[in-house]
Amino acid sequence: MQHSVDCLVRVLESYRGRDKVIRTLCYGSQLVGGIISRKAEADASSHNLGKSLLLFSAQLSHCRTVLRLFDDMSMLAYSYSYGFGAKEKDGITRWISVLTNVADQLYYPCEHVAWAADSHLLGVKSDRWWVVSTVLWATSLLLGTLRSLRVLMLLKRELRKCHKDGSRCHSQIDRQMQVELLSILGCMADFMNAIHWMPHGFLWAGRFPPWLVGLMGTISSVVGLIKMKEGDFAQTCSAE
């Protein structure tokens, strides 16, 4: 019990860890609130609970938007350190990563303008800026999926090579493949929501009920938590 509490505290003390926890609570609340609101229309108390959970989810989402005002520099530092991916062995993976970094870098200022417009800090309409930021997010998710698929293909080649050579690297490659599969699952879940938030008339834009948006977001959030735990495990192994 004490170990679990210590792990939770350690996660909440880091910015990325806290963001992932808030994100999971945000979408989880939307999932539960959407389900309750849908099934309890005749029950006033249950309906009010569902509505409260949806409002709580909206507040957490707004909280994350405000916190992302400070993410530009960290994203810029990451993009600068990655550069054109000179250390990346595979050329396709390198250029997909570069394009992903470009989309992510452009996403933040567009979202900031949209937020400032909604907050009446700028005298512009926010609609087009939200659309642009959503398009950039969806682009980043698609590129992330393509990158994971490419990495999976390379890992399979490496795994076949290990079988031929008789080397004992199967467990490490299997773990890497599991992480990439989780990445694809998380990206696709978020991509479903990204399309939902596009202008009406585009594919399934605007057709998701709140509980389905919450479900997709919860899936991607849980994937993010699992990947964060896997990252901590990898750092521990490398330190040992």
TrEMBL record:
Keyword RNA-binding listed: no
Cellular component per GO, a single term: peroxisomal membrane
Upper classification of the organism: Eukaryota, Metazoa, Chordata, Craniata, Vertebrata
InterPro entries referenced in this protein's UniProt entry, alphabetically: PEX11, PEX11C_met
Name assigned to this protein: Peroxisomal biogenesis factor 11 gamma
Pfam entry (one): PEX11
Compartments where located: Peroxisome membrane
Organism of derivation: Hippocampus comes (Tiger tail seahorse)
Highest taxon above the source species: Eukaryota
GO biological process: peroxisome fission
Keywords: Membrane, Peroxisome, Transmembrane, Transmembrane helix
Transmembrane segments: 129-155, 176-196, 208-226
